[in-house]
Amino acid sequence: MNNISLPIIFLVLAVVVLVFGFGVVWLNRRKPAAPVVQRATPIAKAAVVEEVAVTEVVAVVEKASVRDRLSKARSAFGGAVTSVLTRSEISDTTWDELEEALLRADVGVRVAQELMQPLRARVKSKEIVSPQQLIDALRQDMSAHLVSTDRELRFDATIEGPNIWLMVGVNGAGKTTSIGKISAQQTALGRTVMMAAGDTFRAAAGEQLATWAERSGAEIIRGAEGGDPSSVIFDAVQAANARNIDLVLADTAGRLQSNTNLMEELRKVRRVAEKGAGTVTEVLLVIDATTGQNGLSQARVFAEATQVTGVVLTKLDGSAKGGIVFAIETELGIPIKLVGLGETITDLVAFNPIEFVDALF
Q1: What mean pLDDT is predicted for residues 8-32?
Q2: How distant, in Å, are the alpha carbons of 75, 237, 306, 316 from that of 301?
Q3: Separation in Å, CA 224 to CA 30, 201, 212, 232, 355
Q4: Cα distance between residue 68 and residue 166, in whole Å
Q5: Which of 8, 162, 246, 280 sits most deeply, having the most CB atoms within 10 A of its CB?
Q6: In this predicted structure, what is the pLDDT of residue 50?
Q7: SS3 259
Q8: How far is CA 355 from the centre of its chain?
Q9: Contact 166, 273 (CB under 8 A)
Q10: Is the separation of the CB atoms in 265 and 273 below 8 Å?
Q11: Segment 35-92, tens digit of pLDDT
């Protein structure tokens, strides 16, 4: 009996062990898995921010050259130059093409004649014998028409009270925008600036100027819409003087009921501006280069009324009529001081006559 029962006992024990093992496995599977906790590896935020900042500084966008910006003016004038250079000699056709190109570029009849007559004499005397010599001489003469002019913006640090720069010109020429860009430039030079929103007759002119004041770090004095422009400018000059501000940039009206009314208003603005604590050291006429000879007419009228000291020629990059530069300076004796070559705040630049003439060829 003992011999029979012993194997049976072992068999029963083996079955019990197997059943117990399966039971443990089955129970473990029914239990929810315990969450696995992992420590997050800290991210070096400062390092990432610093890396991005360095990338932004290094990624410098190359600014387009003056030659690139004046491609429209060059295409209008350069075709004639190319045609002349393809010929082996100087003929009547050569003179016709050059004169036509100068007139298309809006240099004006007077300036075109002043440029062509000396060249004709030099060709006749055999001083110039080839088309290449003729083009080189024309380039030199065009530069000579422009290089003898003082183009510095007048800022007198010795006067008591602020310098006043009046900005005049017809609506749409870019007067308010030019004020904003000039303000940014003067602020970068370390001068403090006050803007005077004197164009009270144009809707939203004050808001536009206020936006530029904020962008350029200037202060601004505004008046009621339709109010007296002279009063606004006078108040701005007085406020600038009280706050020891260096420069007042005064916007003015660009359109009234008639030209006569506008010119009378601008004369009044000029008189009133100098009655306060400041001194008018610049009257800058803003002209849209795309208007061509119309810009010359504007310059003539504004110069008589406001004693214009310099011209800001805007939108020169979009014009094929860059010859207006010669017409304004030769016929009126008013220097081009700044030119607009794009939309950004740094695209209003000092006029360089040599660079300008070279860009036309």
Answers
A1: 54
A2: 31, 26, 9, 21
A3: 81, 9, 19, 9, 44
A4: 31
A5: 162
A6: 28
A7: helix
A8: 18
A9: yes
A10: no
A11: 333 333 333 333 222 222 222 333 333 455 777 777 777 776 778 888 888 888 999 9
Q: Pick the more confident residue, 120 or 107.
A: 120
Contact 174, 286 (CB under 8 A): yes
Q: Which two tokens stand for residue 148?
A: 């003898």
Question: Parallel, antiparallel, or unpaired: how do β-strands 219-221 and 163-168 relate?
Answer: unpaired
Tokens of 346: 């740094």
Alpha-carbon dihedral 77, 152, 186, 354, rounded to 10 degrees: 30
Q: How large is the greatest C-alpha to C-alpha distance in the chain, in angstroms?
A: 150
Distance CA 168, CA 237 (A): 17
Is 330 buried (19+), middle (13-18) or exposed (0-12) by CB count in 10 A?
Answer: middle
Would you say 247 and 194 are in contact if contact means Cβ atoms under 8 Å apart? yes
Say which residues have a Cβ less than 8 Å from residue 195's Cβ, sequence separation at least 6: 179, 183, 209, 212, 213, 218, 219, 220, 221, 236, 248, 249, 250, 251
